[in-house]
Specification:
The structure is a homodimer of 437-residue chains. By secondary structure, chain A is α/β, with parallel strands linked by helices. The first copy, chain A, has two domains: 231 residues, Aldehyde Dehydrogenase, Chain A, domain 1; 144 residues, Aldehyde Dehydrogenase, Chain A, domain 2. The first copy, chain A, is built from 16 helices and 16 strands. A seven-stranded parallel β-sheet of chain A has the order 10-9-11-8-7-12-13, with helices on both faces. A four-stranded parallel β-sheet of chain A has the order 5-4-3-6, with helices on both faces. In chain A, helix 9 links the parallel strand 4 and strand 5. Chain A is globular and about 65 Å long. Chains A and B meet through helix 12, helix 16, strand 13 and strand 16 of A and helix 12, helix 16, strand 13 and strand 16 of B. Strand 13 of chain A pairs parallel with strand 16 of chain B, so a sheet runs across the interface.
Chain lengths: 437, 437
Amino acid sequence: MSIVSPTARADAQADQAMPDLAAEMAAIGQAARAAARHMALATTAAKDAALKGAAAAVRDAAPSILAENALDVADMRREGGSDAFIDRLTLTPDRIEAMASGIEVVAALPDPVGTVIAEWDRPNGLHIERVRTPLGVIGVIYESRPNVTADAGALCLKAGNAAILRGGSDSFRSSAIIHGCLARGLAAAGLPTEAVQIVPTRDRAAVGEMLAGLGGNVDVIVPRGGKSLVKRVQDEARVPVFAHLEGVCHVYVHAAADLAMATAIAVNAKMRRTSICGAAETLLVDRAVVDSHLRPLVEALQAAGCIVRGDQATRTAAPNVEEATDSDWSCEYLDAIIAVAVVDGLEAAIDHIERYGSHHTDAIVTADPTAAEKFLAEVDSAIVLHNASTQFADGGEFGMGAEIGIATGRMHARGPVGVEQLTSFKYRVRGSGQVRP
Amino acid sequence: MSIVSPTARADAQADQAMPDLAAEMAAIGQAARAAARHMALATTAAKDAALKGAAAAVRDAAPSILAENALDVADMRREGGSDAFIDRLTLTPDRIEAMASGIEVVAALPDPVGTVIAEWDRPNGLHIERVRTPLGVIGVIYESRPNVTADAGALCLKAGNAAILRGGSDSFRSSAIIHGCLARGLAAAGLPTEAVQIVPTRDRAAVGEMLAGLGGNVDVIVPRGGKSLVKRVQDEARVPVFAHLEGVCHVYVHAAADLAMATAIAVNAKMRRTSICGAAETLLVDRAVVDSHLRPLVEALQAAGCIVRGDQATRTAAPNVEEATDSDWSCEYLDAIIAVAVVDGLEAAIDHIERYGSHHTDAIVTADPTAAEKFLAEVDSAIVLHNASTQFADGGEFGMGAEIGIATGRMHARGPVGVEQLTSFKYRVRGSGQVRP
């Protein structure tokens, strides 16, 4: 079975600048706004049917998806893309199945729309409810991973939103055909296919149009990608953004830390997967346990394949430690490298994290509950952990089913952005003729 | 007793452009960020003591506040300010007492910071809590009402934030001396006075600096004022904004509306106070009840002193109705004027509101629960009411104690912005050595 979305068919034109990009993008925005209004009122059953239909369409279209993806991969190889980039772009039968089952996981989540978050009565008899509503139109701008098309599209739909997806130009054909599967699910469920649109051009000016808000028809932008993308989005966006600039995450081994636990957590936090934003980038070791803990920690990391850069105290206590410079303390390596510093107690650890961290995810290892509480209260990060790995910074691990990213800002969403975070709310007030005195 | 803040003392310089405004404003931002960190960890007792101290300081300083305010009012008279503007600017002993007791109301509210909003356990034993935290640094930009200095400052403090206040140049002296009272309360409670700062210049370029975010040291801007202020803020702000552009609020009299209830609600919604954003601006009457309801509704409004502008059907059914033009349907009169249209049923009423409204507050009057539910579900406004006046759109009426404004955007805060809406949250995760598989 072959499913090729109209945008994939138009691939020959996609490389050329669109003759009137602004008008095309404005039309996409208007269609999204109309579809959002429809989706806001769609039943849970219809939305779930659309998602299940999309998952089935992804499975049916697997051969075509692989074929389109192979063209994208061939282009990237020809252009000399790195192995890491090619890996992110490449789809396999397993990865396609993971995409389909990921859409089904979202379908199985509770529908947040219409949930009464709070309700109360007023002395005058008014009954007030705060009830979840969709956010509206969500623009998602991402890079080479084509699975984001399915993940982000599914989450936006579940929360009753319309989505405008702008994939990376590297994954243009792959994203287009996956988008076609989402559209097929929507159509089969009787929902407007414009509820998930994909930008039908590689022209980067389309990103600028989205960031300008398409005439009020984009309510929030979600960037998913590297630093330069997120920075462009935060600099240029005229609409709200859910973004994290980076994850400079810390593990702090407190004076009362059990060495075995600290070692297990530090190695897992750094090395389980080095490329995710919840990976630890800096290990802080309390001076009180330098003699007992520092060398075993460093050696365990090195044994796991990690390069260790340290301050003077670390280099004195442990072998084969490179010299850390000031830039290491705020570096998101996303690689098998860690910076290690010795700190003078809990306050100094908190100060270090506040100074160099990115307010993403930070952990303390300690058997002292008072120290743990102080750390959890005073470290101003989206996620703070006691005696657990920073790699738990993930919507799935939090029980949210799926996430569109991890937000480090303080507005609206913070931490994993799942279906609930893709909603707004309104107040529903029921009276019996009340007027205000 | 005389309390004159340093900024009031510097009044002679305030009119002149500051020699290095950008540097001054940057310093204000840095001081706010440092104070915000302190305030985030302040105890409820300390914050409440600061607020009670500020209220006492306002009462003590009443004679000085009146004297400073008289200078502001004299300036405005000299410059030919309208009666409405002069009324907004003018403080009286009653208004000063209302300010002081308003601060005490905020002090008596529950402290939102540290509240666990949700908590759950994961199968791996991790315990996850979502806990309220302050937002950080809040910039408040307002116009001639000097009481906003006290209201906004108190709400920001209660929620553990730092505030940077930029009052109207008309109320410069009045706001400065009220700010001095807040600072006195903070100092007496051992909290940093930089937790509430006021911009010490009338130079409008200071607003531009705030909107640019003071180098990352402003987390959100709250504009309180007329359309042109809010529009400037929304156009220029490089940081998130809580704003409502306007309140084009509707009362829809459905086919199943009781005439007496509809009349009471329509007259209250329009005429109780015409200058607030929750005042109704448009009355929609169902064609099914034109013969029975329209003329009595129009006459009741006219008897209450309201000018009525109507469409052709309204002008046919009722006397002394001016002709409404298309611009009337989206006009926020904030005056004793109402636009009246006849609509063909519930769907048409909803369509009218979605087309011309501002997503602020809209009400249906009906005895039909099915119609009411459809209206409450489909009208996409911050507040939707059944059988109650739109003038209930107010944080105090909602039981929030006080509000800094009413937000019509969909991000973070929607509807009345009280202390809870001035907070963010973080995740606190407690483990016992868990690592991620």
